Amino acid sequence: MKKILLYLLSMLLCCFSSCNNGMQSKEKETKDSLAAANFIKCAKFLYNTFWENADETEETFPMFQKQYPLENALIKELYSIREHYTKEDSLMRWYIFPKDSYSIAITASLQTYIETKHIHLPSNPISKYRCMDSIIWNNLIPDAGNEREGGNQMQLNATFGISAIWTEYMCYHYEMLLDSILKEKKIQLQLHVERERYDSLLKTQVSFFDSIGYSGSAAPMAYSDLEEKVHAVWLAGVLDLYFSLQTEDYRPDNIYKPIPDNIIAREYDTILYNIDNHRIYEYLSIANSRNNIKLCLLNVKAAWKNLMDIRKETSRRLRGKTKDIYNNATYRLQRFHLLQLKNSFEGYGVISNEDYSCLLSDTCSHEELLRASNISVRRDSLLQKLEDEYNNQ
């Protein structure tokens, strides 16, 4: 079945390429490049859907399956559960529903695996999380680099995708646990509403990726990398609050500082200016395409504002340590988002060494983050430096 699927996908890609070569209109080429990006995502979903039906000779990770058959079986089950709970909205976006049932189903499979491996989970909530996190990252994410010839593109894409799915699951799992404690302690926190707004923010960022034409065989890596990082920063805030409500002396590993709204708004304006002046996404020269990019970026901005509005509203109702922990999670989100903006949403998936050197690191200090210029300025400086070095040879 998988061979048939891959053959059909190859034929479609060839047809797509042939049509594209015959087009004369630049605007048509641009639209097709965006369609290609969506097609790649559809191909990824179809591949994942059929994975659990493959026989042993058609394994995505044959070396992993041979060495770790139990772990490979659990990953297949993970995809099967995800397929069962995946729905499609009016915009052809996939989402998980209901999330609680999805989380419970994966938890049951994971628990069976843990018991089969005779792994003892600690009772302390922090130690238990660290143990689960270690099991997932060390045992349940195949490393494409360990496959034959260092892994192919499909295996690399799958590794990124599996990482994103596990991080998403941990978010849902600990949100359920946190929600239970909040109700028990009668703390008013609109966790489900906040999560919906955060999901909306992620959806707008995915749409922004679509608009700038992420395509090619490595595109799924970039999408999965975005999703994994977005889920991870949310999970960190959920865990801090969950641990603090169960452990009296718990303190977050990092304390963050608030970032004023006007600083984040200024970075949006910088990206919009750069789009208009062809300083980024130069390959999309058609006016309509650039207008679509700006519209998608403004949608991200609106979704971000909606999220911050409800978190500010919630913060006003909280008191004491819970308020401090909650606010620190908000400041973490602000830092993460400002970093995204400073890098113009670049740096996801696999990138060149030159582009990587232009990225603002997530380990930078608060002061460095505020002072840093947009990636377009940093890239111009790098290109000028390389040009000067070449001329001086």
Number of helices: 15
Q: Specify the helix fraction band.
A: over 70%
Sheet/helix structural class: mainly alpha
Mean pLDDT: 83
Strand content: under 5%
Biggest beta sheet attributes: 2 strands, antiparallel
Q: How large is the radius of gyration?
A: 22 Å
Order of SSEs: HHHHEEHHHHHHHHHHH
Which shape, going by the Cα principal axes? globular
* Terminus-to-terminus distance: 57 Å
Adjacency order of strands in the biggest sheet? 1-2
Number of domains: 1
Total strands: the figure is: 2
Uncertain segments are 1-57
What report would you give on this structure?
The protein has helices at 2-21, 26-51, 62-67, 69-85, 99-116, 125-139, 153-184, 191-211, 219-244, 261-276, 287-317, 320-342, 353-358, 366-371, 375-391, and strands at residues 86-88, 94-96. It has 393 residues and is mainly α. A hairpin with a 5-residue loop joins strand 1 (86-88) and strand 2 (94-96). The longest helix has 32 residues, at 153-184. It is globular. Mean pLDDT is 83; it is low at 1-57.
